[in-house]
Amino acid sequence: MCGIVGFVGNQQAAPILLNGLSKLEYRGYDSAGLAVRSGSELAEVVKATGKLKNLREKTNDGYALSGNCGIGHTRWATHGVPSKTNAHPHVSGNCTGSASGAVESDVVGVHNGIIENYQELKDKLIRHGYQFYSDTDTEVVIKLVDYYYKKYKVGPIDALAKTMVRVRGSYALEVMFKDYPDEIYVARKDSPMIIGIADGETYVASDVPAILSYTKHVYYIGNNEMAKLSAGNVVFYNLDGDEVEKDLVEITFSAEAAEKGGYEHFMLKEIHEQPKVIQDTYNAYVKDGDIDFSNVGLTAEDIQAFSNVYIVACGSAWHVGMAAQYVFEDLANLPVRVELASEFRYRKMPLASDGLVVVISQSGETADTLAALREAKSKGLKTLAIVNVVGSSIAREADYVCYTLAGPEISVATTKAYSTQLIVAYLLAMKMGVVRGTLSQDVCSGYLKEIETIPQKIESLLADKERLQWFASKYSNAHDVFFVGRGIDYAIGLEGSLKMKEISYIHSEAYAAGELKHGTISLIEDGTLVIGIATQKELYEKTMSNMVECKARGAYLMGLTTSGHYAMEDTADFVIYIPTIDDHFAGSLSVVPLQLLGYYISVSRGLDVDKPRNLAKSVTVE
Ligand code: F6R
Fold first, then answer.
1. Contacts of 350 (CB under 8 A, 6+ apart)
2. Fewer Cβ within 10 Å of end Cβ, the chain: N or C?
3. How far apart are CA 164 and CA 239, in angstroms?
4. pLDDT value of position 133
5. Around Cβ 477, how many Cβ atoms within 10 Å?
6. Which residues of the chain have pLDDT under 70?
7. What whole-number distance in Å separates Cα of residue 225 and Cα of residue 187?
8. Catalytic residue among 58, 382, 457, 617
9. How many other C-beta atoms can be found within 10 angstroms of the C-beta atom of residue 5?
């Protein structure tokens, strides 16, 4: 939700800021803006609605703005409609600038996050004579900084600290003060922000890809911390205004990893990266043929102490939990509950104090998942995070952190992160099974060998993608699609359905196949596309019966099953086969054709695959 960037150094800031924003567009893309200043000159503010290209055009790719210090923002609207007025940067004065764009204001800033008590703060500021030109919570926070700055006649850090004590919510806030040329001040709570350093230059961004082409050396600013950025230098402060020491971290992935690499869309590139990132993730936790979570600090004694598992996540990450629960239950004989983070955090659910809460998140910043993690910790439960983004809030706060090695995922619709999360979940379930004595070492070794085949089997599915492309072009005008399956197949159907609807805007639903006749089957009519997933041997016949029931009501049937079940072609109109694999891990294969189907349908409909409407990659608001 929203991306922020900043730069201060020897070069012109605006082209660097625009380049950074282009790598963050996945975080929001309804409007964008820049504020750039040169020495003690006033900052110039330029904003444009719509995609970043509009701001590029307006600023001649940034070259129309002169100055080596600046901040930028790409927006995903929370407070106030997408409009030029509501676009960031926001200023402490009464409007965002003259015709030239120069602003008289003492404070100008951008913000990612949400200020929950903004209305109360706005009322207070109005009582003190402030006027508001936008509907945003960000304008309120910028004016509050200005208020404390002037009321107490303090420096930027003290003004920010007073503001932070007063606001409730989340923020990655970047501000420039008129009286402090060549400096940017930042503050962070619960929204991501990293600071990069190179020779004589300092960068700030919501996410690493925005600055990777300039530097690989970053600082992670902590929660409730602030920093002063000047050319090539950064000083961190805590809420008391005391300086804080930080370690510089070297990023291990390359700038190219966050580029399209010849693919038409990031999503297609990321689908194709799955064999590699699955292998990388597997290698991180399997050493000499044994599952090893020692680098996570998870010991056999810890595992023995857990009486049950709560898996908590949102969206696709929740779907990983839905699939993984069957594996945990079967291999580790542990009771598992899979909860949506947005529900879990507000439920009055009795939790076993010796339960393990597993949170799953690509970004590590999803507001609901982070809140659920904190809720679990406050109740004294141990927490384990399966997370992709190194140094993210969830990674920092969980007791145990299992990183997925998916690398940067840019497409809003997740694919490779999902697949690596599944791998970690399998390994965790198996490790728990071995430690608890419900899975023998021999059987575990056999399962590891099965998992090792997944990358090559995905390669073979990808090699056959033209069939799905053809099918997608035929069905790109579908109005409703139903995904049905049982057990793990149902969980994969949930993910297939989400992939379909989020990027192709076709209404789709996933049902546990046995549930169809309890209501949904009344929606099936002539030509309705029903995708039946049947990879689980024990459940194959049952799901087939449900598919037949749909066919009898006129459905057009696509089947997804394991190689060998050729009889499915007698019933289904179009069948996709996945290579044979142990049932527990079939989801890692069956999800791939469904990702491709969603992708190709979106392409056939001429939609923006990587940036679907109304969505953002990292959901840092409730
Ligand atoms: C869908 C998708 C989302 C995310 C969800 C959680 O393709 O990507 O449903 O899975 O927003 O995000 P993370 O994993 O970052 O917590």
1. none
2. C
3. 8
4. 94
5. 10
6. 1, 96-100
7. 6
8. 617
9. 29
Of the candidate CATH numbers 3.40.50.300, 3.60.15.10, 3.90.1150.10, 3.60.20.10, the domain formed by 3-258 belongs to 3.60.20.10
pLDDT score recorded for residue 303 = 97
Q: Which residues have C-beta within 8 Å of that of residue 614, sequence separation ≥ 6?
A: none
Domain residues of the chain, as ranges? 3-258, 260-452, 460-622
CB-CB contact of 269 with 261 (8 Å): yes
Which 8-state DSSP code applies to residue 526? T
What confidence tens digit (pLDDT) does each residue in 536-575 have? 999 999 999 999 999 999 999 999 999 999 999 999 999 9
Distance 471 CA to ligand 1 centre (A): 26
HSE-up (13 A, CA, CB side) for residue 404 = 34
Whole-angstrom CA distances from 276 to 55, 69, 527 are: 36, 39, 38
Tell how far CA 156 is from the center of its chain.
Answer: 32
Task: Choose among 360, 351, 354: nearest CA to 395.
Answer: 360
Q: Which residues pair with 398 in a beta bridge?
A: none
Cα 394 to Cα 361: distance, rounded to the nearest angstrom: 8
The preferred substitution site among 76, 322, 363 for testing ligand 1, maximizing ligand atoms within 8 Å of CB, is 363
Cβ atoms of 484 and 543 within 8 Å: the answer is yes
> Which amino acid residue places its CA nearest to atom 9 of ligand 1?
315
pLDDT for 80 equals: 82
pLDDT of residue 269: 96
User: What integer pLDDT is reported at residue 282 of this predicted model?
Assistant: 97
Torsion of CA 306, 307, 313, 319, to 10 degrees: 120
Per-residue confidence (pLDDT) for residue 344, from 0 to 100: 94
388 lines ligand 1 (CB under 6 A): no
CATH architecture of 460-622: 3-Layer(aba) Sandwich (3.40)
Terminal Cα distance for the chain, rounded: 11
Tokens of 376: 């679990």
What tens digit of pLDDT does each residue of 366-384 get?
Answer: 999 999 999 999 999 999 9
Q: How many residues make up the chain in this entry?
A: 622
Residue 421 Cβ < 6 Å to ligand 1: no
| H helices present in 332-415, as ranges | 341-344, 367-378, 393-397
Nearest atom in ligand 1 to 314's CA: 6
- Active site annotation includes 617: yes
In the annotation, is 150 catalytic?
no
260-452: CATH topology is: Rossmann fold (3.40.50)
| Cβ–ligand 1 contact at 366 (below 6 Å) | yes
To which residue do tokens 């993984």 refer? 324
* Contact assessment for residue 329 and residue 335, using Cβ atoms and an 8 Å cutoff: yes
Express each pLDDT in 195-210 by its tens digit: 999 999 999 999 898 9
User: Other CB atoms closer than 10 Å to residue 198's CB: what's the count?
Assistant: 14
Amino acid 616: pLDDT: 77
Cα–Cα distance for residue pair 583/12, rounded to 1 Å: 56
In this predicted structure, what is the pLDDT of residue 265? 94
Asked whether the CA dihedral 359, 362, 365, 369 is positive or negative, the reply is negative
Atom number, ligand 1, closest to the C-alpha of residue 415:
7
Whether 260-452 and 460-622 share one fold: the answer is: yes
* Residues in a beta bridge with 402: 386
